[in-house]
């Protein structure tokens, strides 16, 4: 019976284990570009688990609802990019991305919200929204 429970637990966790979240680096240098535009990127692979899809959907939804004017004016964008497609590899390399990653980039700063996405997008979506709001407000204030 114990073996059966372990087997069931492993089956339930298998989709999460398959995701390769990037280590969190709260703020790093991205490039020498000093733009006022905020660009959000969700990098992923072709095969994605439910959690990965939820992070993408919630991040986009949160950004668009929190900052509708910035989106309308073109001052903020959200892009979902497949790492297995050749056109996206150059940007991924430039930003230092090699796995599922949620990045918010403004000029020479980038904020990696991947770990927060995996921790909160599914189980505490309001917490995830608060974190996005706090980090993006910080970038807008600069």
Q: What's the quick description here?
A:
The chain is of the alpha+beta class and 142 residues long. The protein has six helices and five strands.
User: Tell me about the biggest sheet?
Assistant: 5 strands, mixed
What is the assigned CATH homologous superfamily? Glutaredoxin
Computed over alpha carbons, the radius of gyration is 16 Å
**Secondary structure: number of strands:** 5
Instruction: Work out the count of structural domains.
Output: 1
Q: In angstroms, what separates the terminal alpha carbons? A: 58 Å
Provide the descriptors you would attach to this structure in a database record.
single chain; 6 helices; 142 residues; five-stranded mixed β-sheet; Glutaredoxin; alpha+beta
Explain what this protein looks like in three dimensions:
This protein has 142 residues and is an alpha+beta fold. It has one domain: Glutaredoxin. Helix content is 50%, strand content 18%. The protein has helices at 2-17, 50-66, 68-72, 86-95, 114-120, 125-140; strands spanning 28-29, 38-44, 76-82, 101-106, 109-112. A five-stranded mixed sheet has the order 1-5-4-2-3. A hairpin with a 2-residue loop joins strand 4 and strand 5. Helix 2 packs across helix 6 (125-140) and helix 5 runs antiparallel to helix 6. It is globular. The termini are far apart. The relative contact order is 0.22. The model is unreliable at 4-17 and 22-34 (pLDDT under 50).
Describe the SSE topology.
Blueprint (H helix, E strand, L loop, with lengths): L1 H16 L10 E2 L8 E7 L5 H17 L1 H5 L3 E7 L3 H10 L5 E6 L2 E4 L1 H7 L4 H16 L2
Parallel strand pairs: 2-3
Antiparallel strand pairs: 1-5, 2-4, 4-5
């Amino acid at each position: 019976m114990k073996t059966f429970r372990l087997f069931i637990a492993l089956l339930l966790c298998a989709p999460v284990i398959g995701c390769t979240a990037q280590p969190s680096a709260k703020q790093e240098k991205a490039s020498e570009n000093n733009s006022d535009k905020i660009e959000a990127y969700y990098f992923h692979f072709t095969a994605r688990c439910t959690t990965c899809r939820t992070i993408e959907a919630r991040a986009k939804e949160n950004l668009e609802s929190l900052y509708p004017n910035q989106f309308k004016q073109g001052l903020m964008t959200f892009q979902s990019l497949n790492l297995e497609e050749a056109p996206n590899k150059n940007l991924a390399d430039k930003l230092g991305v090699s796995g599922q990653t949620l990045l918010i980039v403004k000029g020479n700063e980038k904020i990696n919200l991947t770990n927060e996405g995996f921790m909160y997008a599914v189980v505490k979506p309001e917490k995830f929204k608060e974190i996005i709001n706090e980090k993006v407000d910080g970038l807008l204030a600069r």
